[in-house]
Amino acid sequence: MHNTFPDTPVYTGYNAPGRFEGEIHDLEVVSGEVPKELAGTFFRVGPDPAYPPKLGSDIHFNGDGIVTAFTFKNGHVDFKARYAETDKFKLERAARKALFGAYRNPFTDVPEVAGQIRGTANTNVVYHHGRLLAFKEDSPPLAMDPHTLRTQGYYWFDGQFSSENAKFKSQTYTAHPKIDPKSGELFGFGYAAKGVATKDIAYYVADKEGRITHEAWFEAPYSAMVHDFVVTENYVAFPITPITSSLERAQRGESVFMWDSALPVYVGVMPRYGRGDQIRWFRGPTCFEAHFVNGFDKDGKVYIDGAQAQGNVFPFFPDVTGAPFNPKVVLPYLSRWTLDMNGDGETFGNERLSDSVVEFPCIDPRYAMRKYRHAWLLAQDPDRPFIHQKMVFNSLAHVDVVSGKTRTYFAGPNEGPQEPFFIGKGPDAAEGEGWVGALFCNLEKLTTDLRLFDALNVDAGPVCVIKLPVRLRPGLHGGWVHEKDLAHKP
Ligand code: V55
Ligand code: FE
Q1: How many Cβ atoms are within 10 Å of 183's Cβ, its own excluded?
Q2: 139-164 burial, b for 16+ CB within 10 Å, e for fewer?
Q3: Residue 373 near residue 343 (C-beta atoms within 8 A)
Q4: CB under 8 Å to 164, separation ≥6 — which residues?
Q5: pLDDT band for position 390 (50/70/90)?
Q6: Which residues contact 1 (CB under 8 A, 6 or more apart)?
Q7: What residue's CA is closest to ligand 1, atom 7?
Q8: Which residue in 2, 215, 249 sits closest to 103, CA to CA?
Q9: Hey, which of 44, 227, 244 would you mutate to test ligand 1's pocket, going by the most ligand atoms within 8 Å of its Cβ?
Q10: What is the pLDDT of residues 114-148, one digit of tens each?
C-alpha cells in the first residue's frame, strides 16, 4: 500500500509533513516578555501534503495548505492549526489517497475529479471584510472563519459561495492581493483566467465589504506565471516574467511551467480603475521577480520595488533550452523599476537599491501603495556561517530603502528564518514604529519558535522568543491582524 511519503528532500527532515491540526493554549515564552499591549493574530499558511503524491513525487508548491494562527492578548499567545479544506483536500480525504496529480496539471488527475477546483490554498492568507481568505493562484479564494479557522468554502465575492450568477468570472485569483490602507479596497487579479496557460488576465477591485466594484480583462504578451503584482495610488502594474506556461506541455503530462530567458520582461500598467484596452506594456531585460516589496507613483512615474534575480530561481521548472539549473543567477537583490507614464517610451528603468541578498518582504501596511521607507525581509548574510547549504536565507533584515542602510539579525547557523510580518504600534505611530515577528526553524533540532523584534532595531535581537512544542513545516505568506479588526462581521 502506498501510504508512506517518499524518502526525498521534499518529504523528509525539516520538510517531513506535519499534518497536525489542533490548538495549544499559552505557548511557552522562553526568553523576554511578550509586550502586553499586543492584541491580535499572526496568520500564515504553507504547504503540508495530506497524502503521499499520486505520481510518486511532487514539488513543494503542491502541498495542501495548513493555516496557522498565533493569537496575542495580555502577554499570552495561543496557537491553532487547521487544514484549508479545499475541494481537493475534501475529495482526497474521502478517498484516503491522492487523486490529483502534478502541480497545475489537470491532465495528470484521476478522471473522476475532472473539472474540480484543484487549488491547495497553500500560498497566502489575507484578512478582509471579516473573512480570512486563503489563496492558491490557480483557484478562487477559499474563505475561512478567522476565529476558528473552519473553512467556509470557495468565495466568488459579493457574499457568494457559488459561482452561479457571480460577477467574478475568472477561474483563478492571485495569492498576492493588496489592500489599500486608506479605502480598505482589495485589489486582485487572476492570470490564466480562462484556463491552463491562457494569456487572459482578469483584474478585480472589491470594496471594503468585499463587493466587486471594478473589473478589467486583457491579454498578457505571453502566457506565464504571474505570481505578484503592484498597486499604487493611481496605477496598477502587472509584471510578466518568463516562467512561461504551455497547454501542450500540460497535455503531454510535462511541467506546465518552463523558464525561457530569450523572452523580455513586460510590465503592463493601467490606471487603477482602468479598462483592459488602456494597458500599456513596458519592456525590460529578462529577470525573475517573485515578490514585490511595494510600489508608488509620483508625477506620472510609477516606481516598483522587488526582489530581482537574474535567472530562474525554481529548479523544478526546467529551462526551455534544456540548460541545467544555474545556481549562480538565483540570488535576489532589492531593485527598483521606474516606468514613466508621461512620455511614450516602451522600456523601463532598473536600479539596485541595496547589495544585500533578500526576499520575502513585508512593510508597514499603512504605507502600502505609497512612498515608504522601511522594509523587512529575509536576507543572506555571506559573512555568517551556513551549516545547511540548501538554506538560502540565514538572517532577518531591516532595510531603509531611502538610504540603503541594512540592519540584520542572525539567529545561528542552524536557524532558518521565515517571512517576517509587521505589527504597527498604532494609527498615530511613525512609519515602522512597532514590532516585526518571524518564525525560525531550527534545522538541526527540528523545532520552531516565533521571535518578535523592535522593528527598527532588529540587530538588537528579539524582545521575546515564543516556543512551539511541535515542529511546523516551513510556511509561505501571511500577516498580522489587529484584534479590533477581527471584530468585523462579514
Ligand atoms: C510561488 C509559490 C506557489 C505557487 C506559485 O513564487 C508561485 C512562489 C506555493 O505555491 O503556486
Ligand atoms: Fe508568494
Answers
A1: 11
A2: bbbbbbebeebebeebbbbeebeeee
A3: no
A4: none
A5: low
A6: none
A7: 227
A8: 249
A9: 227
A10: 999 999 999 999 999 999 999 999 999 999 999 99
Dihedral angle computed from the Cα positions of residues 281, 284, 286 and 287, in that order, rounded to the nearest 10 degrees = -90
| Cα distance between residue 99 and residue 451, in whole Å | 38
Ligand 1 pocket mutation, candidates 88, 123, 139, criterion most atoms within 8 A of CB: 123
Is the confidence at residue 1, as pLDDT, over 60?
no
Tell how far the Cα of 426 is from the centroid of ligand 2, in angstroms: 27
CA–CA distance, 421 with 477 (Å, rounded to integer): 9
Nearest to 200, CA basis, from 240, 251, 163: 240
pLDDT of residue 3: 83
CA of 228 to the centre of ligand 2 (A): 7
Report whether 146 contacts 130 (CB < 8 A).
yes
Mean pLDDT over 461-489 rounds to 96
Provide the whole-model pTM: 0.98
Q: How confident is the model at residue 185 (pLDDT cuts 50, 70, 90)?
A: very high
Interatomic CA distance for residues 54 and 108, integer angstroms? 9
Ligand nearest to C-alpha 123: 1
Instruction: Give one DSSP letter per residue of 82-113, joined into a string.
Output: EE---HHHHHHHHHTS----STT-GGGS-GGG
| CA distances to 84, 187, 457, 479 from 364, in Å | 27, 18, 15, 11
Question: Which residues make Cβ contacts (< 8 Å) with residue 286, sequence separation at least 6?
Answer: 241, 242, 261, 262, 263, 264, 265
Residue 384 has pLDDT above 90, yes or no: no
- Least confident interval from 1-10, 72-81, 153-162, 202-211: 1-10
Q: How many other β-carbons are positioned within 10 Å of the β-carbon of residue 319?
A: 15
Residues 306 and 321 sit within 8 Å (Cβ to Cβ) = no
